[in-house]
């Protein structure tokens, strides 16, 4: 595959669905099927729904009903110290990890061998796009320091991730903002698939897949949004979520190796992406950062953010039977338009 040949990297096919409208006129609707240069998975853009007025996005929804219920929230002080578990002493003798106002402790309902929760601060509900960069930076560093301790305790737990579900529509069980931290010996599906793809590409091309993909996106320009430090932000070519944005750190494979400024740069981009989502009157999103913590890893760091259906009454889910049962995500806005809309938040 030629390194900078966009035709080889950006594969898309347009299909037409012909129908007779209620008016009696014959028409055709355009659907574009794109193949991700990284995963090889396909996604679909249903352009006929681009201008559809989605319920619940006329304005930013009101805060959730429990936005002020701090006395019953297990993540709020003082009950957080009574209702959350403690880290085993072999990993951290103090039981909970602190940095600035961030507090980290094990997940009471874990998803793997090492599953933790990182709080930003004591703020129970934070509107999308209004969080402090410093709070995010401290929390991200707290997560990385926990994962570093896990790695020393258990060198086999090399599949690591930091994720976020903002509000219940994104999968959050509590409105109190927090990150989820994961480390395991057994890879999740995305870990296994991405590690296999990047390893195979590196073996054949003697280069890094995500770095090469970023080089082609930079050359194409149409989906690029902006740079913050070493993180390059752009709209995903074949999105698997609405208004999906990626950040790639070319050449860096370990999240344990990031310094404070590099975490701050990532946090800055995360807040800007949230402000972009807020401009669309959306209030929920997901974030993910995955790594393989081995010297042989060919998986460069990639952060992914995608907006979710609003957390508000009677709002349609953004995942339908097509996504869950057929496996192709269907969105309504082209990534090129997403990038054009988001760029002003990076200026």
Give your account of this protein's structure.
By secondary structure, the protein is α+β, with helices and mostly antiparallel strands. The chain has one domain: HIT-like (HIT family, subunit A), CATH 3.30.428.10. It has eight helices and 14 strands. It has helices at 6-9, 80-83, 133-153, 189-205, 209-220, 260-279, 321-326, 335-342; strands spanning 11-20, 26-35, 42-46, 97-99, 102-106, 114-119, 159-166, 178-184, 224-228, 231-235, 242-249, 285-292, 301-307, 329-331. A ten-stranded antiparallel beta sheet has the order 4-5-6-8-7-12-13-11-10-9, with helices on both faces. A four-stranded mixed beta sheet has the order 1-2-3-14. α3 (133-153) crosses α6. It is globular and about 70 Å long. The mean pLDDT is 95.
Low-confidence stretches: none
**What is the N-to-C succession of helices and strands?**
HEEEHEEEHEEHHEEEHEEHEH
The largest sheet, given as strand count, sense and whether it forms a barrel, is: 10 strands, antiparallel
SS summary, helix count: 8
User: Which word captures the global form?
Assistant: globular
How many domain modules? 1
From the coordinates shown, what is the CATH architecture? 2-Layer Sandwich
- CATH topology (level 3) name: HIT family, subunit A
Q: Hey, roughly how much beta strand do the residues contain?
A: 25-35%
Question: Strand pairing plus helix content: what structural class?
Answer: alpha+beta
């Amino acid at each position: 595959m030629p390194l900078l040949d966009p035709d080889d990297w950006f594969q898309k096919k347009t299909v037409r669905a012909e129908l007779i409208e209620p008016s009696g006129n014959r028409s055709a609707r355009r659907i574009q099927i794109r193949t991700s240069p990284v995963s090889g998975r396909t996604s679909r853009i249903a352009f006929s729904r681009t201008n559809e007025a989605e319920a619940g996005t006329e304005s930013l929804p009101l805060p959730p009903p429990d936005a002020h219920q701090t006395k019953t929230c297990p993540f709020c002080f003082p009950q957080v110290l009574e209702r959350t578990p403690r880290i085993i002493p072999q990993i951290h003798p103090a039981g909970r990890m602190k940095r600035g106002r961030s507090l980290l402790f094990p997940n009471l309902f874990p998803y793997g061998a090492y599953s933790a929760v990182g709080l930003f601060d004591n703020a129970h509900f934070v509107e999308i796009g209004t969080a402090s960069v410093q709070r995010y930076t401290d929390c991200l560093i707290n997560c990385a320091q926990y994962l570093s301790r896990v790695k020393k305790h258990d060198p086999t737990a090399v599949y690591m991730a930091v994720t976020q579900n903002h509000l219940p529509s994104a999968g959050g069980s509590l409105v109190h903002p927090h990150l989820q931290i994961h480390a395991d010996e057994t890879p999740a599906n995305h870990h296994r698939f991405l590690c296999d793809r990047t390893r195979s590409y590196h073996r054949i091309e003697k280069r890094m897949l995500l770095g090469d993909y970023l080089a082609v996106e930079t050359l194409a320009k149409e989906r690029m949004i902006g740079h913050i430090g070493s993180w390059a932000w752009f709209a995903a070519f074949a999105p698997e979520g609405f208004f999906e944005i990626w950040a790639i750190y070319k050449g860096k494979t370990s999240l344990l190796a990031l310094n404070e400024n590099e975490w701050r740069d990532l946090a800055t981009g995360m807040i800007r992406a949230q402000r972009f989502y807020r401009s669309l009157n959306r209030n929920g999103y997901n974030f993910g950062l995955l790594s393989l913590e081995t010297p042989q890893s060919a998986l460069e760091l990639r952060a992914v953010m995608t907006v979710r259906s609003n957390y508000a009454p009677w709002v349609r889910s953004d995942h339908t039977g097509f996504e869950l049962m057929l496996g192709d995500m269907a969105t309504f806005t082209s990534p090129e338009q997403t990038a054009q809309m988001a760029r002003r938040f990076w200026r």
